[in-house]
Amino acid sequence: MKFETLCIHGGRKPDPATGALVTPIYQTSTFVFEDIGKTRGYDYTRTGNPTRKALEDNIAALEGGKCGAAFATGMAAETTVIHLLRQGDHVICGDDIYGGTYRLFDSVMRHFGVEFTFVRLNSRSSIEAAVRPNTRMLWLETPSNPLLNIVDIEMVVDVARKRDITTVADNTFATPCLLRPLEYGVDMVVHSTTKYLNGHSDVVGGAVVTASEETGSRVQFLLNAMGTGESPFDSWLVLRGLKTLGPRMRVHVENATRIAEYLSGHPKVKRVYYPGLPAHPGHDIAARQMKGFGGMLSFELKGGVTAANSVMRGLKVISLAESLGGVHSLIEHPATMSHASMPAAAREKAGIHDDLLRLSVGLENADDLVDDVAGALMSA
Length: 380
What we know:
Elements: H1 3-9, H2 50-63, E1 67-71, H3 74-82, E2 90-94, H4 99-108, E3 115-119, H5 124-130, E4 135-141, H6 153-161, E5 166-170, H7 175-178, E6 188-192, E7 206-210, H8 213-226, H9 232-242, H10 245-264, E8 269-273, H11 283-289, E9 296-301, H12 304-314, E10 319-320, E11 330-332, H13 344-350, E12 356-360, H14 366-377
Parallel strand pairs: 2-3, 2-4, 4-5, 5-6, 10-11
Antiparallel strand pairs: 1-7, 6-7, 8-9, 9-12, 11-12
Helix pairs in contact: 1-2, 2-9, 10-14, 12-14
């Protein structure tokens, strides 16, 4: 099946009891046993639920994986994956990752004896230099949040496989519509389904898709044991959003390209971070491994923080809010919002400067969005 067809039909079947075309919401905490020790496939919603299973199967089909797991939040998905490790294990992670991921790794998991090295994943030599005898996992974002850096997945996988290191890719920004990391040899994909997969800013959730059934079983065991699974209603909301993922992503990419091109030619803009621009250092890699450059971009202004504040206050159509990937265009200030939990020194070292703005380009008319940005820049 083509991608758009998979979004609608992948992993789904009409309800066997009623023939309902749309997956029902099995809003129940428990299931009646047929007999002692004999279930109809489900016993307790924390362990498994038909609505959640439909979502898990659909996302697995979209990513081309063996097993899917749906979680209450994106951070619940990441927390579950990192618990595949043991005390004393070492993780190599991109230094320009989402602030919540950095907080989980640096402020939580370190206390449980898991070691982390944050490094730019743009060269084989930098990754190899970070490898230790106890390195067990390599964690990447591509495009990264918020700098839109591009990682050469084939290169990273080659380094990892030679050393028996598990690779995990956060595919939240690209979605399987634009990139399928498992096809490049990645072992696991994680998502915040809150973002593009749901696409309507009305639910929080996460997902993991694995390349092997063995790893998928381990993830499902932890989901049940840790209680990190998605609720039936929230699973249904994400399922509904996934049906339109293909068309939505096309418009996200078109609109983001328009705004990135406009900003790159504006005299008040110092730098634009968007892999669709030929000047972006990762443009060629992105063009090779992606089917589109995404709906996210970041930029810096020549007027610094003062100008950035003026732009955020001057926007009328674009809203000042955290999160991303919905139909509404959103702007945010990473230093005080999405990456506030990352220490200032770590942000600066990664290149996440205080005047950086991140823009999630929505599905509004592109002319209206460009006009909104142009008007806000007049006061910068």
